[in-house]
Amino acid sequence: MKKLYLVRHGQTLFNELHMTQGWCDSPLTELGRKQAKEAGRSLRNVDFSAVYTSTSERTSDTAELITDKPYTRLKALKEIYFGLYEGQREFTQPKNWFVDNTDAFVPYGGESVQEMAERFENCVKAIMKKEEGENILIVSHGCTIGTFLDRFAPDTMQLIRNQHGIPNCGIAVFEYESETENFVLENLVDPLRWGHKDDDVVKL
Hints:
Layout lengths: L2 E6 L4 H5 L12 H13 L7 E4 L3 H10 L5 E2 L39 H18 L4 E6 L1 H11 L1 H9 L8 E7 L4 E8 L1 H4 L10
Parallel strand pairs: 1-4, 2-3, 2-4
Antiparallel strand pairs: 1-5, 5-6
Helix pairs in contact: 2-3, 4-5, 5-6
GO molecular function: fructose-2,6-bisphosphate 2-phosphatase activity
InterPro entries: His_Pase_superF_clade-1, His_PPase_superfam, PG/BPGM_mutase_AS, Phosphoglycerate_Mutase
Keywords: Hydrolase
């Protein structure tokens, strides 16, 4: 059975400064690079047949620190577009926009959460249909992965939301059921928090 490995990018400068970062970009911090290397260590036993990232450099830089496999960059895997809120301080964002005000950025030229979730899910499904190998790595973003978890593992996503969201370089492992196009969450890993114990290594 095919497996999907969804990884959020490592910490960036904008993450550290608490600035809104959707389609705009900023480099990985020293911590972000360390997170990506730890994710690579956790995934060292997995032979990826294909690797994908968004077109944001923070995801491709993360992928290069996780694996030396070649990768494909796709715009549909990008973070939600925040419109005029891009590059602004996070505290200026509308309250609870991810859950209760999902069209909050549309009046400012941005995307709705639904639009972002649909393009991301459709892209992931297209990738899983296309690829013939067993292990697919996609490096993407907090909101894209969050909506995917909300769709296919809502109880788990609620727990993650209560703990301040998906950590940088957090790994979500799904089994893909091709006949139904369903994804079943198998494992969640936060490599930097858990360190190098054998139990933290994602196994085939």
